[in-house]
Every structure is written in structure tokens, then in C-alpha cells.
């Protein structure tokens, strides 16, 4: 019974190449989270503006979209191992420049924006290519288990990375934090370097307009894939208040950088836990229905998180008892529980979305569809940063000076539930999707 409930580790024990790539991706992703957290805190330190923090994500949106789509075309024509190695090298070099600038004291807001754009573009290519590789490494039967293991990766790197990043910045400063990312990223190169050559199977198309049109035509014939993309965009645009966390930690809940790291990490705790006990999740065949219920649950707990912040804004639960800027332990704890539940729901949805995409899409177009998937997965939160940062900024005067960072998650969670319900009513084939007969 326990083996059916707990995480299926066969992709690691039966496929050494996948195991090496998984370990490298986990450690490299952990380092990347250190830098993401440090850049957010660095920008807030330089500008004192939540909107400036939100614009880090927004500025990289268009380059990330272009890189994800073009990277998918590269992965569908060239050796996927080589494509991932080159893109990872670009990421490492841009982070190295950021570290040098930090050590020499020459970091400004525009440097943070520019290097974040380069990192997001290169990482979108790495991620799309690695995901296109996975089915070839583990086989069709173990794709759900591999997706759950990827949830462990996300859980570890986001659970440990932001909290550790906040502590490292507070104790040692930004240069040390960026440098540690460089060291951890070396493990990703080892995982990629030891892979075999992995050229796409079937008829391939040279990167360019014809390849993009071919991938688009396939997507137009894939209603289930389109529906899962749409649901994820809705959830990540309106239910991802990450850009507000520095201000929430500094002003609303107290605790500053440490609270920011804890809030970010809470979602990863939920993702980690849901992956650790994902045996029955991986065995469930109705992936469309699973995605639908997970997205709706995500919206509900996001709205509750907004209510918790609203309680802090008006001084409930003793949020102002210790004085301005002091951490409100009860509110922080309740907020973390909400975010952990949201992370668990999002991870369950991710397991089913990855499995559907990797099982129902032929290898010859898998890179391009994974590129679109990465654009959706990473682009949604960037739109969410714009939504949350803008709404929090313009609503600052609506409530008589009371901090309004609670409004974006409260309103956004309600919108996620309503829009998801409407989309699902229009997509009966998605709700009937059966993993035993995968159809795009």
C-alpha cells in the first residue's frame, strides 16, 4: 500500500542518464532560485518599489517568449543535448557577470533588468529542451513518475532556494549569493554532458517560419493541449502574487527578507509534499479532470491567502502587536499554510500537464510544443507580476492608506475559479481525457 502512495522512483533507479540529469537540474535550479530571490531583494533595496520588482518579470516576457519558441524549433532539428548545453552556458556567463558587478559595486537597476532578461531567455531554452528529452530517457510508461520527480526538483529548489537566498543576502550580501549560484550550476553541465546524442525522431523541420507554422498547425489540431495551456495561463496570471512578497515581508507581515524567503518557500513545501506522496496521483488516468480540479483548488486557496493578508492589513490576529516592521508570527504561519496548499494543487496540475504533453505529442514536434509549454509556464507568472504589481500600486489610495497587497491574490483567486469553470464547461473532451489513450 505504501509503495502505491509514495513517489515512484523507478526513473532514477532504472535510468542512470535521467538520474544524472535530475540531480544536476535540482542543484542547478537551487542555485538559480538563490539568484532570483537575490535579484528581487536587490531591486527592492535599490528602488524601494514593488512595481520595479514586478517589472523584472515583465521585462523578460517578450525575450522569453521568443527564446522559448525558437528554442523548441532548435530542439526539433538539432541534437537536443547540444542545444541544452549551449543555452546553459549562456545562463552561467550572464550570472557570472552579475556576480562580478556585485563584487565591484557597480550593480544598478538596469543591470538587474538586462541580465535577468538574458537569464530568462536562456533558461526557457534549457527547460524546453530537457522536457523534450525526458520521454526518450525513461520510456512512455514512466513519464508520470518522471513528472512527479520533477515536482520534487521544483519543490526542493523553490523550498530551499528562496529561504536560503533571503538568509544569505541578509548575512553575507548579494555578491556571495550570486557566486554560490555559479558553483551549483556546474552540476547541471555534468548532467547534460553525460547524456547520449538525442536527435529528434521522425521528420524534422529546419528552424524558421515553416517549422513554426508546422508546430502551430499541430497545436490547432490539439484541443486538449490548448485547454491545459489556457488553464495554466489563467491560474498563473491571476493567482501568482510572487512580486508582492518583498513588500508583504517588509510592510504587512514584517520580517523583511527572511519572511519573503519563507513565503516563496511555502509553495514549494506543498509541491514537495504532493510529489512525495504522488503514487496515486501518477496512477490516476483522468488527467484532464485532474488538471481541472487542481486549478480550481489553487484558485480557492489563493483567495484565502488574500483574506489572510487583509486581516493583517487591518490589524487582526495581533499583526501589529509587536510594533511596525516586527514579524507577525500567526499571520506568517497561516499565510504559509495557504501558499503550501496552493503549491500542492499547482504541482498536481503540473504532473498531469507534463504527462499529457509528453505522451500525446509525437517526438518530431515535442520540442516546439515544449517551447510553447515553457512560454505558458514562465510567461503566466510574468503577466501575474504585472497584474499584481499594478493592482497593488493603483489601489494604494483606495483604502485610506491601508496596505493593499492583499487585493491582487483575493480578487485573482476568485477570477481563477470563475474562468476555469467557464473554460471547462466548453471543453467536454478535456474532462474525458484518458491516459490509456492519449490524444492531443
Q: What does it look like?
A:
Keywords: Cell membrane, Membrane, Transmembrane, Transmembrane helix, Transport. One of its GO terms (cellular component) is plasma membrane. One of its GO terms (molecular function) is transmembrane transporter activity. It is found in: Cell inner membrane. Pfam families: MFS_3. The protein is an all-alpha fold. It has a single domain, classed as MFS general substrate transporter like domains (Growth Hormone, Chain: A, Up-down Bundle). Helix 3 packs parallel to helix 8 and helix 4 crosses helix 7. The longest helix is centred in the N-terminal third of the chain and has 32 residues. It is globular, with a radius of gyration of 21 Å. The protein starts with a helix and ends in a 9-residue tail after the last helix. About 2% of the residues have low confidence.
Tell me what portion of residues adopts beta-strand conformation. Answer: under 5%
Task: Note the gap between the termini.
Answer: 32 Å
* Mean pLDDT across residues: 82
Give me the secondary-structure category: mainly alpha
* Tally of alpha and pi helices: 19
Concise summary:
The chain contains 19 helices and no strands.
Entry keywords:
MFS transporter; transmembrane; TM_effector; 0% strand; Growth Hormone, Chain: A; transmembrane helix; mainly alpha; single chain; MFS_trans_sf; 440 residues
Task: Give the SSE layout.
Blueprint: H1 2-5, H2 10-14, H3 16-47, H4 50-59, H5 61-75, H6 80-104, H7 109-138, H8 143-172, H9 174-193, H10 209-220, H11 223-238, H12 245-252, H13 256-276, H14 279-283, H15 287-313, H16 329-360, H17 363-394, H18 407-425, H19 428-431
Helix pairs in contact: 3-4, 3-7, 3-8, 3-9, 4-7, 4-17, 5-7, 5-17, 6-7, 6-9, 7-17, 8-9, 8-13, 8-16, 11-15, 11-17, 11-18, 12-13, 13-16, 15-16, 15-18
Amino acid at each position: 500500500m505504501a509503495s502505491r502512495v509514495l513517489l515512484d522512483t523507478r526513473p532514477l533507479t532504472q535510468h542512470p542518464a535521467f538520474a544524472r540529469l535530475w540531480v544536476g537540474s535540482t542543484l542547478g535550479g537551487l542555485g538559480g532560485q538563490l539568484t532570483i530571490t537575490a535579484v528581487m531583494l536587490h531591486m527592492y533595496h535599490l528602488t524601494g518599489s514593488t512595481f520595479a520588482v514586478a517589472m523584472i518579470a515583465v521585462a523578460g516576457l517578450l525575450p522569453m517568449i521568443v527564446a522559448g519558441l525558437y528554442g523548441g524549433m532548435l530542439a526539433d532539428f538539432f541534437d537536443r543535448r547540444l542545444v541544452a548545453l549551449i543555452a546553459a552556458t549562456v545562463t552561467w556567463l550572464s550570472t557570472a557577470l552579475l556576480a562580478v558587478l556585485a563584487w565591484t559595486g557597480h550593480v544598478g537597476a538596469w543591470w538587474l533588468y538586462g541580465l535577468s532578461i538574458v537569464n530568462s531567455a536562456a533558461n526557457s531554452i534549457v527547460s524546453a529542451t530537457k522536457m523534450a528529452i525526458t520521454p526518450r530517457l525513461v520510456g512512455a510508461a514512466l513519464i508520470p513518475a518522471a513528472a512527479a520527480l520533477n515536482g520534487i526538483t521544483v519543490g526542493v529548489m523553490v523550498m530551499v532556494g528562496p529561504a536560503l537566498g533571503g538568509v544569505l543576502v541578509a548575512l553575507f550580501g548579494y555578491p556571495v549569493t550570486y557566486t554560490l549560484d555559479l558553483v551549483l550550476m556546474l552540476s547541471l553541465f555534468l548532467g547534460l554532458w553525460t547524456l547520449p546524442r538525442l536527435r529528434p525522431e521522425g521528420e524534422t523541420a529546419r528552424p524558421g517560419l515553416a517549422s513554426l507554422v508546422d508546430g502551430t498547425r499541430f497545436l490547432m489540431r490539439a484541443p486538449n493541449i490548448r485547454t491545459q495551456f489556457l488553464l495554466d495561463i489563467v491560474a498563473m496570471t491571476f493567482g501568482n502574487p510572487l512580486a508582492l512578497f518583498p513588500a508583504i515581508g517588509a510592510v504587512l507581515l514584517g520580517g523583511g527578507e527572511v519572511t519573503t524567503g519563507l513565503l516563496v518557500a511555502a509553495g514549494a513545501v506543498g509541491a514537495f509534499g504532493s510529489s512525495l506522496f504522488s503514487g496515486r496521483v501518477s496512477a490516476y488516468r483522468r488527467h484532464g479532470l485532474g488538471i481541472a480540479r487542481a486549478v480550481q483548488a489553487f484558485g480557492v486557496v489563493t483567495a484565502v491567502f488574500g483574506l489572510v493578508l487583509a486581516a493583517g492589513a487591518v490589524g487582526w490576529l495581533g499583526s501589529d502587536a509587536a510594533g511596525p516592521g516586527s514579524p507577525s508570527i500567526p499571520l506568517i504561519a497561516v499565510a504559509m499554510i495557504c501558499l503550501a496548499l496552493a503549491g500542492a494543487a499547482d504541482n498536481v496540475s503540473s504532473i498531469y500537464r507534463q504527462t499529457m504533453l509528453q505522451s500525446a505529442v509525437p517526438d518530431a514536434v515535442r520540442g516546439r510544443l515544449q517551447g510553447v509549454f515553457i512560454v505558458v509556464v514562465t510567461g503566466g507568472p510574468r503577466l501575474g507580476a504585472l497584474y499584481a504589481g499594478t493592482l497593488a500600486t493603483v489601489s494604494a489610495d483606495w483604502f485610506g492608506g491601508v496596505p493593499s497587497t492583499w487585493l491582487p491574490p483575493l480578487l485573482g483567486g476568485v477570477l481563477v475559479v470563475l474562468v476555469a469553470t467557464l473554460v471547462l464547461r466548453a471543453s467536454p473532451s478535456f474532462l474525458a481525457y484518458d491516459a490509456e489513450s492519449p490524444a492531443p
